Amino acid sequence: MKTDIEIAHEVKLLPIKEVAAKINIPEEDLEPYGKYIAKVPYANIDEEKVKKSNLILVTAITPTKAGIGKTTVSIGLALGLNAIGKKAIVALREPSLGPCFGMKGGAAGGGYAQVLPMEKINLHFTGDFHAVTSAHNMISALLDNYIFRHQSDTFALKTVLWKRVLDVNDRNLRGIVTGLGARMDGVTMQSGFDITPASEIMAILCLAKDIDDLRRRIDNILLGITYEGKAFTVKDMGVGGSIVALLLDAMNPNLVQTTENTPAFVHGGPFANIAHGCNTVIATRTALNYGDYVVTEAGFGADLGAEKFFDIKCRAAGLQPKLTVIVATTQGLKMHGGVDLDDIKLPNAEGLKEGFKNLDKHVRNIQSFGQTVVVCFNRYAFDTDEEMQMVRDHCKELGVAFAENNAFMEGGKGATELANVVVEQIANNPSKPLTFQYDMDDTAKTKIEKIAKNIYGAGKITYQPIAEKNLKLFESLGYGHLPVCIAKTQYSFSDRAKKYGVPTDFDFLIRDIVISAGAEMIVAIAGEIMRMPGLPKEPQALHIDVVNGEIVGLS
Predict the structure, then answer these.
(1) C-alpha torsion angle, residues 335, 340, 344, 350 (rounded to 10)
(2) What pLDDT does 393 receive?
(3) What is the DSSP letter of 51?
(4) CA 21 to CA 26: how far, in whole Å?
(5) C-alpha torsion angle, residues 332, 337, 338, 340 (rounded to 10)
(6) What 8-state DSSP symbol labels residue 490?
(7) CA-CA distance, 335 to 342, in Å (whole number)?
(8) Pairing state of beta strands 222-226 and 231-233?
(9) Three-state DSSP class for 67?
(10) What is the end-to-end Cα distance of the chain in Å, rounded?
(11) Is 181 left (phi over 0), alpha (psi -120 to 50) or beta?
(12) Number of other residues whose CB lies within 10 A of the CB of residue 198
């Protein structure tokens, strides 16, 4: 089969104004970025249209290192819905350069289910990631300058909490020292870099409802703690307006098209293993404004992305999904069934059957939120009919709907079964109000415990001393009421990446607690998760090149 980028280059793209016209967005409302990309003002949202639309979440079982194909399924489902005559839009996150040049590659879908132009979306796109990086690092520079200029005013921070970000996997930047040199070169301090998708600015951009909410959240960012034990925020520096100015264009969602020229919104890009893993609230609501069915995804497995989508994004934005699709592959099921990673593409009925336990846990978790579940079998070329039938029969025993997705190979035609099942399930199962995993009145530890025990299956939660210390500090400053965002490995329900299957009664280690006061969440860092990833031995960058003026090797 042709590569993703070869398929992408063969698609005849429509001018973006024609794509917009399909969902009744007038040309004068577009801010074009070239011929095939435009930003759309979010101010045109009609609340009644938003309420009438059908929001569908796509999540997955615990993924392999190659992923599960969740983005491909999300795009494929939107294609399938349009193929059966529905007005459907997909709303996705923007790719990060880190994984694009690192281990996973791009994040614009695959095969005949992609968002296009894929090379622009995967690389610089409309500059949203650069805006977030610039805004974050502008705060860093302004903070360092504030500290330097106020040395004689008896002002000092006992603890500086704000670091820097870069949208590149670079382990050497995890811990650095700044301000080395002469006295005029700044105050010497320990610092470090996170990757841009882990930036609090990214989380704020993705959760802000409008410009006023963006400004409020940026002003509330906690930068450090004074020697008097008081919070020092962006508002205390008086620079919130300048940061909003850097993010002004980035607030509007990006309109692109699929391989079948249907509309897609791609906006925002936090990771789910170190942040909350969802595209912007604004993009989701804009899609709901223009489409009868809106397909969106949450990062990695349902234990990470879906939990945060419900408990953080939906709670903050008042969103109510009608249904959740859980994507499964034979590779993922076999990995969690104890099959050696080198053999997960080979037929193995026993390994597949053992892997059903991972699927079942995710199904139960999603049902605990009150959601109707459809299991989607994301088909690969090496999959056999017999193994697919095993998954179908197992879902029948579970009492959940099942559908095959073959959009990678066939585009919308390969996702019509999934589309029909989703429409039927929404029609026959009126959505229930979301049941959250915790109450906002719960203590931070109770919130963490409920997620870790109920969603992950942990038996005990252990806090390292620094996590205990930071949690007490943040609670004393009035942040204990915020939702919880757990940063942990995406490869296991536990905090250990190679603990596959469905581990139970394990000790769940909270290594540190970080506050994102502007994004309004407590980030609990579990296990060995890093907020700045490193590059693998053979990064994807080895395969990317420019030949005859065209980018090749992106996937």
Answers:
(1) -70
(2) 97
(3) H
(4) 6
(5) -40
(6) S
(7) 10
(8) antiparallel
(9) strand
(10) 13
(11) left
(12) 27
Please give the helix or strand (H or E) that residue 420 lies within, else none. Answer: helix 416-428
C-alpha neighbours within 13 Å on the C-beta side of residue 27: 6
Interatomic CA distance for residues 259 and 118, integer angstroms: 10
For 516-532, the DSSP string reads ETTTTEEEEEETT--SS
Label the pairing between strands 254-258 and 38-39.
Answer: antiparallel
Q: State the Cα–Cα distance between residues 541 and 219, nearest whole angstrom.
A: 38
Backbone phi, then psi, for 31, in 5-degree steps? -115, 95
**Interhelix angle 416-428/70-83, nearest 10 degrees:** 80
Residues of the chain with confidence (pLDDT) below 70: none
Lookup: tokens for 17: 């104004």
> What is the rounded CA–CA span in Å between residue 291 and residue 255?
13
How many residues are recorded in the chain? 555
Provide the pLDDT for residue 421.
Answer: 98
> What distance in Å separates the CA atoms of residue 426 and residue 406, rounded to the nearest whole number?
21
C-alpha span between 387 and 131 (Å, rounded): 46
CB environment 37-57: b (16+ within 10 A), e (fewer): bbbbebeebeeeebeebbbbb
Model pLDDT, residue 309: 97
- The β-bridge partners of 89 are 294
Could you tell me if 163 and 223 are in contact, meaning their C-beta atoms sit under 8 angstroms apart? no
Cis amide bond preceding 99, omega within 30: no
What CA–CA distance (Å, rounded) separates 123 from 49? 33
Residues 6+ apart with CB under 8 A from 154: none
